[in-house]
Design brief:
Length: 447
C-alpha cells in the first residue's frame, strides 16, 4: 500500500457505481485531486449495468455482511435531500418508523420485495434468517391465499400452488439511471474532474513496475499517484495484462420489458418487486412510463471475440443488434413472467437487453490494492448486486485505500483470495457462450 496524501493525484477509471461512490467518499474525507475517466461520451453511460430504469434494493442475503450493508444503504437511500425520489418504497416512506405494519394500511400502500419460494433454498432460508436477526420488517406468506393478498385488487396472478415466501417491507427499487446521475452531479460539485469519452487503453508503469497513470484510447495520458479501476464489466478486456480472469468475468444477463396501457399500469402500479432465489427470475412494478421490466439473475452469457476475455456487447458497440438476447432466453423470461402474472406473459416484449455484470466466482466484490502494485486499487466485480450499495459502497473502497478496512474484509475482497465460503445464490451451472446466430428476432418477441 502506497502512502496517499490529501493532495495526491487519484485517477478513477469508470463513472459508475463503484467509481462515483468512491469519489464521493474520498472527496468528503478531504482529498482534493480526483479525476474520473469514462469510456462513454454520454454519462451515465447508456450501456452500463447501472444505467437502467430500475434495480432491486433488498437486504435479503445469505451472507450477514451484505444484509447489514444493504440495511444501512436503505437508510441512506431514504434521504430525499440527497437522492430525491430515486428510491421507491412508497409504503415504507409513509410508515418508516412503525415497528408493525397494519394489514389494512399495506393493502392500500403496497410495496416492498416479495421473496417467493416453490420448494425452499438454502440461500433463501439464510437470507430470511439474516433479515430477522437485523430486525428487518417481514411478513411470512405460507399459503397461496396469503401470497395473493399482497397484490392489489384487479391484478391477475398465478395460482401460487405449492409456493410460499415472505414480503420484505423495508425493500423496494431504485430508479437506477437517476441515482447515478444524481451522484455524478454531486461529485462534480465536491470538486471531482470528470472526463467522458476517455476510455482507458492501458496503465502507465514506473520503472519499479508500479502504476503511475492511465493511457486512454484517444492517445491522452493522465498521471496519478494512485489509480482506481472501477470499470465494471469492461475491466477484464480493458486491462488484459492484469490477468483478472479468475475474479473478473464479464457476463451478459437477460432482461426484457413490456408496455402497459395507462389503465393496466394503474392496476399493477403498487405491486411488489418479485424475487425468486430459486429460478433467478425477478420483476418490477410499472415505472412512470408504464413499462414493466423483468429479468433472470443467472450465470449469463460470455462474448469472447477472437477467444479473448469476455467483452460486453451492447448498443454502443453493436447498435440495436447489441440489444438482442438469445431466443431461448426470451422463452425463459416469458415462462418466468407466467409464474407470477399470466396475463402479462401474453403480451409482446417491447425491448430486450443483455445487462453486463462483472462477476467473481463467489459473488463477492473485488476491493483493495493489487497484490503486486502498491499504486493500483481495484473496485469492481459487482456480480450483479452492487447497485443497491451506491450510497455506501464507496466507504469500503475509501477505507481500503486508507488502510482502514477491517482485516476480515481485506481478505474477503482481495483479488488473490481463494473463493469465499458462503452459499451462492446463482446455482444454474456455468456461463454459456453467446451464439450470435441464435439471437432473437422481432417475431420471437411476440406471445
Amino acid at each position: 500500500m502506497s502512502r496517499i496524501e490529501k493532495d495526491s493525484k487519484i485517477v478513477i477509471v469508470g463513472a459508475g457505481v463503484f467509481g462515483l461512490s468512491t469519489a464521493e467518499y474520498l472527496l468528503k474525507r478531504g482529498y482534493t485531486a480526483i479525476t474520473i475517466l469514462d469510456r462513454s461520451a454520454e454519462l451515465p453511460a447508456p450501456d452500463a449495468a447501472s444505467c437502467d430504469i430500475n434495480k432491486i434494493v433488498r437486504s435479503s442475503y445469505s451472507d450477514p455482511f451484505y444484509t447489514k450493508l444493504a440495511k444501512d444503504a436503505v437508510d441512506l437511500w431514504r434521504d430525499q435531500n440527497q437522492w430525491g425520489d430515486t428510491y421507491h418504497d412508497f409504503f415504507v416512506r409513509l410508515f418508516q418508523h412503525a415497528t408493525q405494519i397494519p394489514d389494512a394500511l399495506f393493502r392500500r400502500y403496497r410495496s416492498g420485495v416479495f421473496v417467493i419460494s416453490s420448494g425452499g433454498s438454502g440461500y433463501g432460508d439464510g437470507a430470511y434468517q439474516n433479515d430477522v436477526a437485523l430486525g428487518v420488517r417481514l411478513k411470512d406468506l405460507k399459503t397461496p391465499e396469503e401470497i395473493k393478498s399482497i397484490f392489489p385488487p384487479g391484478v391477475k396472478t398465478a395460482s401460487f400452488e405449492g409456493a410460499s415466501g415472505y414480503i420484505n417491507y423495508d425493500g423496494g427499487w431504485a430508479f437506477a439511471s437517476q441515482g447515478v446521475a444524481v451522484l455524478l452531479e454531486r461529485v462534480k460539485k465536491l470538486g471531482a474532474v470528470v472526463y467522458p469519452g476517455k476510455g482507458a487503453s492501458d496503465l502507465i508503469k514506473a520503472e519499479d513496475g508500479t502504476t503511475k497513470g492511465v493511457k486512454t484510447t484517444d492517445g491522452s495520458s493522465y498521471d496519478a499517484d494512485l489509480v482506481v479501476i472501477a470499470s465494471g464489466s469492461w475491466t477484464p478486456s480493458t486491462f488484459p495484462k492484469l490477468n483478472l480472469y479468475d475474479k473478473c468475468l464479464a457476463t451478459g444477463q437477460v432482461l426484457a420489458t413490456i408496455q402497459l396501457t395507462p389503465e393496466e399500469a394503474e392496476r399493477y402500479r403498487n405491486t411488489p418487486v418479485i424475487l425468486s432465489f430459486e429460478s433467478g427470475f425477478y420483476s418490477f412494478p410499472p415505472n412512470a412510463d408504464n413499462i414493466v421490466k423483468f429479468a433472470i439473475h443467472g450465470r449469463g452469457y460470455l462474448h469472447q471475440p477472437n477467444n479473448g476475455p469476455s467483452t460486453p456487447r451492447t448498443k454502443l458497440s453493436d447498435g440495436q443488434d447489441g440489444l438482442r438476447i438469445p431466443k431461448q432466453a426470451v422463452k425463459d423470461l416469458r415462462a418466468g413472467l407466467a409464474t407470477v402474472y399470466p396475463e402479462l406473459s401474453q403480451k409482446p416484449f417491447v425491448t430486450t437487453r443483455l445487462c453486463w455484470y462483472n462477476d467473481s466466482p463467489d459473488d463477492d466484490f473485488v476491493i483493495g490494492y493489487h497484490p503486486t502494485d502498491s499504486r493500483l486499487v481495484l473496485a469492481t466485480s459487482g456480480s450483479g448486486h452492487a447497485y443497491k450499495f451506491l450510497p455506501n459502497i464507496g466507504r469500503l473502497v475509501a477505507d481500503a485505500i486508507e488502510g482502514k478496512l477491517e482485516p476480515e474484509l481485506v481478505k474477503k475482497f482481495a483479488l488473490d483470495r481463494a473463493s469465499n465460503d458462503h452459499l451462492p445464490w446463482r446455482s444454474d451451472g456455468s456461463s454459456r457462450p453467446l451464439n450470435l446466430a441464435e439471437l432473437c428476432t422481432a417475431d420471437d418477441l411476440l406471445p
